[in-house]
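Today's session is about reading a structure prediction critically. Students often jump straight to the picture, but the first step is always the sequence itself: look for stretches that repeat, for charged clusters, for runs of hydrophobic residues. Only then move on to the predicted structure, which in these notes is written as discrete structure tokens rather than atom positions. Here is the chain we will use throughout the hour.
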Amino acid sequence: MTIPVRPGAARPAGRPAAADPLAPLLDLPGVRDAAEAARTGIDRLLRHRLMRNRSAEVSTESALRGARASAALEGVDVPLADLRAGQVDDPVVQGALRASVALGSVQDTWTRAPGQVLARLHVLAAADLADRADLGRPAAPAGPRLGGLFSLVTGESAVPAVVLTAVVHGELAAVAPFGTADGVVARAAARLTGITRGLDPKAVSVPEVGFVELGREEYARVLAGYASGQPDGVAAWLVHCCRATEHGALEGLAIAEALLRG
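Below is the predicted structure for this chain, in token form.
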């Protein structure tokens, strides 16, 4: 199948709305059920009593754990206690942490100007990994596919938010538009999509931890399947992302329970 991301164009006035390009993804094997399970897991987290007045504390810890996990998926695994104590100066970890912390400030811009936010995320994630002149500048060949992705981010879709989040993640990780820190940027953009599309509006789950728990090798395998564009590969990636979201919701619950215990 063709991954439903193609160069975007302004919609001419007066034409009927186009069919939802993501809708066929729900008919792929296992995707609909996996998306529903992910939604159920997140809803359980959002109903936790701590979310009434202490969700910001959960979100702060979630950002820290998410950054650590994102770096681990890049092969840099550091103890959480060391990161919390400010004892980690690895550039990959620091880049992931900067990108994670910045998500709150770019939520409104993401749905209006995703290219601007993506450039900002790369500047933060790759500041110590790439030449200054290359920061925030995607390679020219990635332009058309990024344009299609941006159309999805700024447009409307009736598919579950977790599916769009998985597409954003898969596209950016597979296309690797910047050449450095693309995985970190992809996971940050995916989390941002989940926040802005109402999947996890309080940013209290930790999907990055979910991917780590499912295995770094498995992550690479299913991502390669998505990049192939074959239906089975795309389906496996979407289901994998939904499963990671479920695990991430459990991580959020663990954070909330730990805060309650003090």
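Discussion point for the tutorial: Residues 2-16 have pLDDT under 50 and may be disordered.
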